[in-house]
Write a structure and sequence with these properties.
Number of helices: 3
Radius of gyration: 17 Å
Strand order of the largest sheet: 2-1-3
Shape: elongated
Helix content: 40-55%
Low-confidence stretches: 4-12
Bound molecules: zinc ion
Length: about 110
């Protein structure tokens, strides 16, 4: 069942866009934009929001950790998961709609 393992692999990873991330000016670590202060060093001054810089930092983190997980971006103990949970729900909903949609026989013509 290669499909099943694929789905499970995706579940443990997170899909964050560059616009949801920022970089700590002090220690250079990736943070979620929703983090009030850097979860690594506690910095709460200026953060880098340049999409190119953030993208490069994401690539670096993926290279370092193999993949990017939520725990690399924020402190899970303080993380408020309301908006992403809502988004995950929506994603699940759309996935179901797509499966339902693909079962229509007239689409295969
Ligand atoms: Zn920091």
């Amino acid at each position: 069942m290669p499909r099943e393992t694929e789905r499970q692999g995706q579940k443990s990873e997170i899909a964050v866009s560059v616009s949801e991330l920022k970089i700590c000016d002090l220690c250079g670590w990736l943070n979620l934009v929703s983090n009030k202060e850097c979860f690594v060093c506690g910095w709460h001054g200026h953060f880098e929001h340049d999409p190119d810089v953030v993208r490069a930092a994401v690539e670096l983190a993926v290279r370092r950790h193999g993949r990017l997980e939520l725990q690399h971006l924020t402190d899970l103990r303080t993380y408020r998961s309301t908006p992403p949970t809502m988004r995950m729900r929506l994603l699940g909903f759309w996935r179901r709609v797509r499966v339902w949609w693909s079962t229509f026989p007239w689409r295969r013509r």
